[in-house]
Amino acid sequence: xxxxxxxxxxxxxxxxxxxxxxxxxxxxxxxxxxxxxxxxxxxxxxxxxxxxxxxxxxxxxxxxxxxxxxxxxxxxxxxxxxxxxxxxxxxxxxxxxxxxxxxxxxxxxxxxxxxxxxxxxxxxxxxxxxxxxxxxxxxxxxxxxxxxxxxxxxxxxxxxxxxxxxxxxxxxxxxxxxxxxxxxxxxxxxxxxxxxxxxxxxxxxx
Length: 206
Known about the structure:
CATH architecture of the largest domain: 3-Layer(aba) Sandwich
Structural class: alpha/beta
Number of helices: 12
Strand content: 5-15%
Distance between the termini: 17 Å
Oligomer: single chain
């Protein structure tokens, strides 16, 4: 079977509320405030940030647009954009899950909404080619989840029929988009529950 991993919040740490609280302590005192600011900053990964994710605008332009839209100083917005790579640290339990799935004989791929600068950082910093046979970053292919085209591109790129693909993602819309194309898919909340789900599907032994 071919197992497809999302990256942010699945393979790599991505918790916008705590991330923003760390980068902007002068603006954010609680995780609740962090979540509110994150919804404005990242626009639920639509808007300006969605264009950045999709590789249609670069880092300088997304900084300019977010600053203009929100009134936050450009230097502070740039501070957040520059700090994202250090937030994207591997989640140890997911790395173990990846190794166990490979040991069980499965082929692993990734499908990630990721701006090009961060995709480059991850590719250069972590052993992606050791963990995954192949993968697609939205910023490089100029398409984005949950759009149908990136899933179609993934099927072609992975050389797999939809029914052969098992997709783990932490956003319900992306899971639903995969299911609509006849992928097997489920919502990732943490590595332990994902492991239990994979065991229940007989893709891993208990």
